[in-house]
Amino acid sequence: ETGVTQTPRHLVMGMTNKKSLKCEQHLGHNAMYWYKQSAKKPLELMFVYNFKEQTENNSVPSRFSPECPNSSHLFLHLHTLQPEDSALYLCASSQDRTSGSDTQYFGPGTRLTVL
Amino acid sequence: GEDVEQSLFLSVREGDSSVINCTYTDSSSTYLYWYKQEPGAGLQLLTYIFSNMDMKQDQRLTVLLNKKDKHLSLRIADTQTGDSAIYFCAERSPDEKLTFGTGTRLTIIP
Q: Staple partner for B22: which of A64, A83, B72, B92, CB 3.0–4.6 Å?
């Protein structure tokens, strides 16, 4: 068990749907991340939150909207997605993004399929 | 920009040692990591090495770092069927960015 949980584990949605992915960490960490894992491509960092403040948005389309209400929870709100957005979405957390020895721990991911 | 490269596939006979290799381009990397991803699961941190070290051993795992050549390897001794997974190398830059390789799929031959 990693201490980082994600729900749902699988999600199928149409292009006009609105859905949300949830991530929760039980490690007392202060930084949380969203990554996208597509087949045969390196992991792509999408968003970073450190102490509830968004510190990175790596040119992610606005159809993905993150929310971090507190240090333990992270959401990814999805709307009007495209089929190419189908991927495994991984959440990660770490103690403190700015710490020299910071290490990220990952959740199991949400397998998203956009029809 | 940073780039991390790995071979896509590796097949090893059960009981043999597996060596998974990784090269990276950012000479200012602070930490380098190995993650394991089993089917249907997220990434599990296996081990990491600070950039001023050249070796780290943890039970069956040995990490070797050649900083001059920007080459990182993970050796798994006595490979078991449970070691079948995709192994990701990642390097951390001074601005805390983590860059992952595409992963190496390790297949164990009985």
A: B72
Q: Which residue has the tokens 């403190």?
A: A96
- CA-nearest residue to B38 within chain A is A108
- Phi, psi angles (nearest 5°) of residue A38: -105, 160
Q: What are the two backbone dihedrals, phi and then psi, of residue B103, each rounded to the nearest 5 degrees?
A: 95, 145
Best of B8, B25, B96 to substitute, by most chain A Cβ atoms within 10 angstroms, is: B96
Question: Mean per-residue pLDDT for B78-107?
Answer: 92
Residue among A98, A104, A92, A106 nearest A47 (CA): A92
Tokens of A32: 């949380």
Nearest to A90 among B30, B43, B50 (CB): B43
Strands B55-58 and B104-109, bridge-based pairing: unpaired
Residue A46 has pLDDT above 80, yes or no: yes
Tally: H helices and E strands in chain A: 0, 11
Cα–Cα distance, A75 to A39 (Å, whole number): 23
Contact state of B31 with A101 under an 8 Å Cβ cutoff:
yes
